[in-house]
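Priority: medium. Attachment 1 of 2:
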């Protein structure tokens, strides 16, 4: 069984919205109370409370606070589990020597929502077309919400969990579905073998020379965003105008995110539907967008320029594109080949002679001593495609690191196997 997520937009009336807001406040109160309990237990008695210790106190809480009863035991447990995951991440970062990031208390305005971790306590009914009804709870106190949304998997799906979120005054329900492989499958319309190099100048460049322009959603809305932020900076924090401008800024950010997500879904679906093999390189966006500020003793150079480049990289959504391709190729029976960037060096390697040709980032044309000349991104796309179609590549074929030499070598790769690449 595969897992797929579908999101419904909810349309509660005034009373239903007030009730949902009250539920979010209660979940936020439980989260903050559990966090305070953990802090006090360790500070006063040196005891580290676990998730199970706090979960066992829920019956006592519901006996004293009757308003927690209608939230459901499983939803309350999931809120406590959310706090436990935050502490696990905190201890993991401490052990790794990273910035700890201790769990913080949350305001109910910044508490996004709550989750039902299993199908108990709620039900969604599709009414035909894109209309649906989400029913939460049972009996006279059940909450029935009008919803809009649809999935493509038919009637044989099984719901797994439900997450209710609030964004800019609007409510959404994200449902994880357990779907059979047959229901997920899509008929592929082509059998192309394509190498693709993702970037900022062009969002994608293929080995055959085809390109996809970068829509630059953030850059297009940047003047309007800067104007709103300047206006808000002149207002008193907490005033009515300050809050109104904050809502406008949040709405603009959400619009940018929706445009980016829609663009990525369409382009990655087209790739998965038309290609039997998609080859690209691993991208570590977190490393690529690291700040150039440096330290007080060793300050960085060209910090503003690097900040602008980081903004464009994040705006392109390259990491999100890889995530989408990783599950869409499974649905279409294609193969996603991810080459190891540090060992293969697609931007520096020649697709004709396989030699290394060092280039700066400003050099956009690949010129090799063997006579091969091509646009830099197209050459890199050809290199990763050759790496994907070369027999014997992959982690299973070779576990030793590549030798440092100019000759043709095989990179350690990671693949999403759905079909076997031709020539492999």
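Attachment 2 of 2:
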């Amino acid at each position: 069984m595969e897992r797929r997520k579908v999101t419904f937009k909810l349309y509660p009336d005034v009373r239903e919205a007030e009730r949902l807001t009250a539920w979010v406040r209660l979940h936020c109160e439980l989260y903050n109370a559990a966090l305070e309990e953990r802090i006090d237990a360790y500070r006063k008695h040196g005891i580290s409370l676990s998730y199970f210790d706090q979960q066992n106190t829920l019956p006592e809480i519901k006996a004293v606070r009757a308003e927690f009863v209608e939230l459901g035991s499983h939803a309350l447990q999931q809120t406590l589990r959310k706090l436990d995951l935050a502490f696990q991440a905190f201890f993991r970062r401490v052990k790794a020597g990273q910035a700890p990031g201790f769990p913080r208390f949350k305001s109910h305005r910044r508490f996004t929502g709550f989750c039902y971790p299993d199908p108990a306590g709620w039900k969604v009914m599709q009414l035909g077309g894109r209309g649906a009804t989400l029913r939460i709870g049972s009996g006279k106190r059940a909450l029935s919400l009008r919803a809009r949304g649809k999935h493509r998997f038919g009637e044989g799906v099984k719901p797994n969990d439900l997450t209710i979120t609030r964004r800019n005054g609007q409510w959404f329900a994200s449902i994880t579905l357990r779907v059979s492989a047959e229901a997920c499958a899509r008929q592929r319309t082509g059998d192309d073998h394509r190498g693709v190099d993702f970037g900022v100048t062009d969002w994608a460049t293929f080995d055959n020379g085809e390109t996809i322009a970068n829509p630059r959603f953030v850059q297009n809305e940047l003047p309007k965003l800067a104007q709103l932020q300047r206006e808000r900076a002149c207002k008193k924090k907490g005033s009515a105008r300050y809050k109104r401008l904050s809502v406008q800024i949040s709405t603009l950010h959400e619009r940018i995110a929706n445009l980016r997500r829609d663009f990525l879904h369409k382009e990655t679906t087209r790739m998965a539907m038309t290609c039997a093999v998609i080859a690209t390189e691993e991208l570590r966006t977190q490393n690529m967008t690291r700040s150039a500020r440096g330290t007080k003793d060793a300050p960085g150079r060209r910090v503003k320029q690097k900040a602008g480049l980081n903004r464009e990289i994040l705006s392109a959504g390259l990491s999100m594109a890889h995530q989408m391709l990783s599950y869409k190729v499974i649905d279409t029976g294609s193969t996603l080949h991810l080459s190891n960037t540090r060992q293969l060096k697609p931007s520096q390697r020649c697709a004709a002679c396989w030699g290394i040709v060092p280039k700066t980032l400003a050099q956009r044309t690949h010129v090799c001593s063997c006579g091969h000349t091509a646009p830099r991104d197209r050459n890199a796309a050809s290199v990763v495609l050759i790496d994907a179609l070369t027999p014997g590549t992959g982690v299973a074929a070779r576990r030793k690191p590549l030798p440092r030499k100019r000759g043709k070598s095989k990179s350690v790769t990671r693949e999403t196997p759905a079909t076997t690449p031709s020539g492999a």
